[in-house]
Amino acid sequence: MSASTRMKLVNSGDFQTLFLEELGWDKPDLAPLRVTVDEQTYTLQQVAGYSGLRVWLCNDLPDARTQRLIDQHVRKVSDARLLIFSDHTRQEWRWLQSADAEGVGQPRLALHRHTVGTTNEALNQRLGTIEIKINESPTLIDVLRKMRAAFDADIVTKRFYDQFVRRQRALTVAIQGIPDDSEREWYSSLMMNRLMFIYFMQKKSFMDQDTDYLRNRLNQLRDLVGEGQFYGFYRDFLLPMFHEGLGQKVESRQYPNDVVAGLVGDVPYINGGIFAEHKLEHDNTIEIPDEIFTSIFDLFDRFQWHLDDRPTASQNEINPDVLGYIFEQFVNEKESLDNRGSDKGAYYTKEDVTHFMASNAIVPVFLERLIARTGVNPWRYVREAPERYIWSSLAWGIDQPLPTEIEAQRMARRRPLWDGPASENLGLPGETWWETDRRRNEHAKLLAAAKSGHIDSVDRAVTENIDLEQLAVDTIDQLNAPEQALAAWQILTALRVIDPAFMRKSDVSRDNGRNALEQDGLAA
């Protein structure tokens, strides 16, 4: 099927034809859903499905909060789902993105926006990825993997990194004035990280309110100094901008002249050492031709740069995950080259892990303080709708009975069939029938405890591993009194978190590793 055909169907809103006839999915198996949020009713029509993975269409485009609440209702009948919200001019595609590659863990509702009438190559490529060809008979797990491959930001990260490395190697060759090969390569990685850092900032208008700051300054300097000044951009602009602009507070900046000061413009002070004068810059007279920066900016300009690191589905989006990934790769390559030992190096903690840690540390504290200050009772939501707060991985397949042959061995002394892998519609990846049965029993116990009101404190909720983040969101949504809403806001804004990674440690190797990064200007 041609790409143009896919996008014509998307733009016409004919999603059923798109999925059934062009992408090879199956017909709907569930009736339409009517969901009421804030006294407004929304109708969701299933347009297609495959082995329990369903695509739902809502011909309305409510705000993000309402979409989230609608998704909570859809979750009750459709655990694996893709939601499309459309008002015939704009579309928002919502995919339930799991935290790990096996489809279990804390889920996130990823977002991809589409403007009707545009080609949207990013969306088109994703649709191509989830196509089921005539000669294929994929399992549900296979299709879920297709969906994750289509919407996984890691693909963008690695694709960008491959091209990033090629530019970095070209920059290493172009650098003049550093005789040692390993030091020249290290300096090129520092330069690339500095430039990438600035790309994030300029897209937020932090760099002299210019969203194309570096490219425009390169062009301005060429116009100013004329052709043939091959080293002008690096020595006459980048170094002063790094060291005196971003590396110094405003009152301490000393530019070579007013022309350079005017070129640099209004830029923020960045603490942490990444833009301070590096030892290699102090000890060597470095020159870098303008042309290499043109090539680097050409690469960077092909991607979208966002400081907001929430999951999206933009095919070329670069978010802080990418900065952390590349930082980790270069630092660890440097450690390997210098033979500093395998116990050191940089490790970037990805968003899903930090989200899990932060959520489990912050949300319980927030709920305890909110209850103490306002007297609200969030536990009634758990009692009234317990399924909403039980993780979908725990509830996987509970709506279907175990196979007859498995049940037949339940009372037997030996259960040889139970040692085998559970079917994909009933068991999580890698589960045996023993593990599936045990999980179903745990789900039944948790459901009974929730319905009976035994989950009535933060400690009990943590012990039972219910979804406290969802409970906190629901509690905030249901606050009616202005003073309660104000209290919630005050509690959240007053919370302070200490990251132990930045605390003083007695671990000498950790301190030495941190000091080494600070010296190299990469531990911002």
Determine Rg (CA atoms, Å).
27 Å
Low-confidence stretches: 99-105, 308-315, 337-345, 504-524
Number of helices: 21
Q: What percent of the residues sit in helical stretches (DSSP H or I)?
A: 40-55%
Task: Give an overview of the whole structure.
The protein is of the alpha/beta class and 524 residues long. The chain has helices at 3-12, 15-22, 64-75, 121-129, 140-151, 153-174, 181-203, 213-225, 232-246, 258-264, 279-283, 290-300, 320-338, 351-374, 379-384, 404-408, 433-451, 458-464, 468-477, 482-494, 508-519; strands spanning 33-37, 40-50, 53-58, 80-86, 90-97, 108-115, 304-305, 317-318. The protein contains 21 helices and 8 strands. The strands form 2 sheets. It has a 6-stranded mixed sheet with strand order 1-2-3-4-5-6. It has a two-stranded parallel sheet with strand order 7-8. Strand 2 and strand 3 (53-58) form a beta hairpin.
Keywords:
8 strands; alpha/beta; 524 residues; six-stranded mixed sheet
Map the helices and strands.
Layout: H1 3-12, H2 15-22, E1 33-37, E2 40-50, E3 53-58, H3 64-75, E4 80-86, E5 90-97, E6 108-115, H4 121-129, H5 140-151, H6 153-174, H7 181-203, H8 213-225, H9 232-246, H10 258-264, H11 279-283, H12 290-300, E7 304-305, E8 317-318, H13 320-338, H14 351-374, H15 379-384, H16 404-408, H17 433-451, H18 458-464, H19 468-477, H20 482-494, H21 508-519
Parallel strand pairs: 3-4, 7-8
Antiparallel strand pairs: 1-2, 2-3, 4-5, 5-6
Helix pairs in contact: 1-2, 4-5, 6-7, 6-12, 6-13, 7-13, 14-20
